[in-house]
Amino acid sequence: MVENDRWGTLFAHIILILGVAVVVFPVYVALVASTHEGGTFLRGVMPLLPGSHGWENYSTVIIEGRSNAGAPPIGGMLWNSFVMAMAIAIGKIAISLLSAFAIVYFRFPFRIFFFWVIFVTLMLPVEVRIVPTFEVVAQLNMLNTYAGLSIPLIASATATFLFRQFFMTVPEEMLEAARVDGAGPMKFFKDILMPLSITNIAAMFVIMFIYGWNQYLWPLLITTDDSYYTIVMGIQRMVTGGDSEPLWHLVMATVVLAALPPILVILFMQRLFVKGLTETEK
Amino acid sequence: MQTKRMTFNSRWLPYALLAPQVIITLVFFVWPASQALWQSMLRQDPFGLRTTFVWFQNFERLFEDSHYLASMKTTLIFSVSTTLLSMSVALLFAVMVNRMIRSQNAYSTFLVWPYAVAPAIAGVLWWFIFNPSVGILPYILEGFGYDWNHRLDAGDAMILVVVAAAWKQISYNFLFFLAGLHSIPQSLVEAAAIDGASRTKRFWTIIFPLLSPTTFFLMVVNVVYAMFDTFGVIHATTEGGPAQATNILVYKVYRDGFVGNNLGSSAAQSVILMVIVIALTVVQFRWIERRVNY
């Protein structure tokens, strides 16, 4: 600190506490709403203190669902989201590691060309090319499958760049030593490169898990069978699926369950998360 | 582009290693994109029986279509407001947190987690808070004599989606601003303080200019986010309404393609969006090259 400025610091604390309150407020409201019974919301504005029906509401959404509005129990949806997020995170990391390894440790014709093919994916978000991508997936018979949910989202230029960047910083001597000892390329990759990249892999995993879990438009398009719904898109069905006002207490219980896993991932792996976020953007 | 000085020799192995990624990219990225290009020059009759090649007519029609132009304007307002709101709030938080010594990590933890909330969920949360019958904010606003209704009022609906989209993005901007602030040499700030510059003056003449690379980078990222990743916010809440007031370009592509079944026009819109993304990516990468010696 340059100067001692007590009032300034106090002022900063006040701003930050208000800021944290604003940032936390929507989730607090959701938590509170998910512990009241349905009737509360018919009587006017929602209360700001927790009610006593939390257990009931959560068990309703997880096990029974809302059969009258066509929303299945969300236990299954949570599982689908988990499978999709894991498949996307692991898939992205696996193919990016392999291709970064090829680009850094081999010289071969068309290397630059392949690099550009991978780079293109950066420029084409799913949202931009949904109709033709949907058609491709439909032709491959991948609608309503886990493969259809995850594979089209697996290619990732950012992960490839991150690993390329990291491999470039690995000392040349590692490779020389490995070759003197007679290690082939895959042995070098498995026994030397992988252990060295483990923090980068973990950081990438955190970011990609969140990315996969939060996918919305893609599962919305390619799942028509409700046993493949993911939770983030399932909420939309709950909100607009009914004929009158949504059943707020159940919707909010679902919202909390949908937001919780990625939030926990961030809170428990904050350091890895920050590393992953700031390094992929370089 | 570099490799290592010493490399492995193999005729087939590098291709095998690249194959999974390249195949997925070709099948799910390059092929659909070229399909979009091709379809953008076709027109189907309403029954889908006949398709004719019409060159650039779909594009010409789009630029004469008042709905499309209105959607462009909506997108512009939406992305500029979202970017400004989330970046200025994040910068304020980052500057304040940067003053703290012991409490820095605690505050950061509280400000960082909304990154994990999906845009669609952020939309539903704020939609609930702003709900005219049960929401808490309309109740407070009513006390001030303002009748909030985002189902009827275009301005209210726009505020709703901007707040939801910006809220989720604050944590991302906050982290990058904080990292930017940490990298500013403390000696410069101290020198200015010795010369008698006030805190405000130091911020605007030293800290803010030195943050400009971060600010510029975040501007590009936020515009991309607001234009493309906010589909969920719109779809889960206003669905483009009332009366097209929040119908941003990405949402319109989806609506015209899947609901309206107007494939030629939707493909043409996709192509325009791709051009925008490519332009933004190029801007972003040129900036990265310059940043090395700023």
From TrEMBL, chain A:
Gene that encodes it: ugpE
Principal subcellular localization: membrane
Family annotation (SUPFAM superfamilies): MetI-like
Keywords, in A-Z order: Cell inner membrane, Cell membrane, Membrane, Transmembrane, Transmembrane helix, Transport
Name of the protein this chain belongs to: sn-glycerol-3-phosphate transport system permease protein UgpE
Positions of transmembrane segments: 7-31, 82-106, 113-131, 143-163, 192-213, 247-269
Primary role: Part of the ABC transporter complex UgpBAEC involved in sn-glycerol-3-phosphate (G3P) import. Probably responsible for the translocation of the substrate across the membrane.
Subunit structure, as described in the record: The complex is composed of two ATP-binding proteins (UgpC), two transmembrane proteins (UgpA and UgpE) and a solute-binding protein (UgpB).
Membrane topology field: Multi-pass membrane protein
GO terms under biological process: transmembrane transport
Family membership: Belongs to the binding-protein-dependent transport system permease family.
NCBIfam families recorded: PRK10973.1
Pfam families named among the record's database cross-references: BPD_transp_1
Residue ranges constituting the ABC transmembrane type-1 domain according to the UniProt record: 78-269
GO cellular component: plasma membrane
Subcellular location: Cell inner membrane; Cell membrane
Signal peptide residues on this chain, from the entry's feature table: none
UniProtKB/TrEMBL annotation, chain B:
Subcellular location: Cell inner membrane; Cell membrane
Topological category with respect to the lipid bilayer: Multi-pass membrane protein
Classification via Pfam families: BPD_transp_1
Annotated GO biological process: transmembrane transport
Membrane-spanning parts: 12-31, 76-98, 110-129, 157-182, 203-228, 267-288
ABC transmembrane type-1 domain boundaries: 72-284
PROSITE patterns the UniProt entry points to: ABC_TM1
Keywords on record: Cell inner membrane, Cell membrane, Membrane, Transmembrane, Transmembrane helix, Transport
GO cellular component entries: plasma membrane
PANTHER family reported in the protein's UniProt record: BLL4140 PROTEIN, SN-GLYCEROL-3-PHOSPHATE TRANSPORT SYSTEM PERMEASE PROTEIN UGPA
NCBIfam families for this protein: PRK10561.1
Subunit structure, interactors included: The complex is composed of two ATP-binding proteins (UgpC), two transmembrane proteins (UgpA and UgpE) and a solute-binding protein (UgpB).
Family of this protein: Belongs to the binding-protein-dependent transport system permease family.
Protein task: Part of the ABC transporter complex UgpBAEC involved in sn-glycerol-3-phosphate (G3P) import. Probably responsible for the translocation of the substrate across the membrane.
Protein name (Swiss-Prot/TrEMBL): sn-glycerol-3-phosphate transport system permease protein UgpA
Taxonomic source organism: Pararhodobacter oceanensis
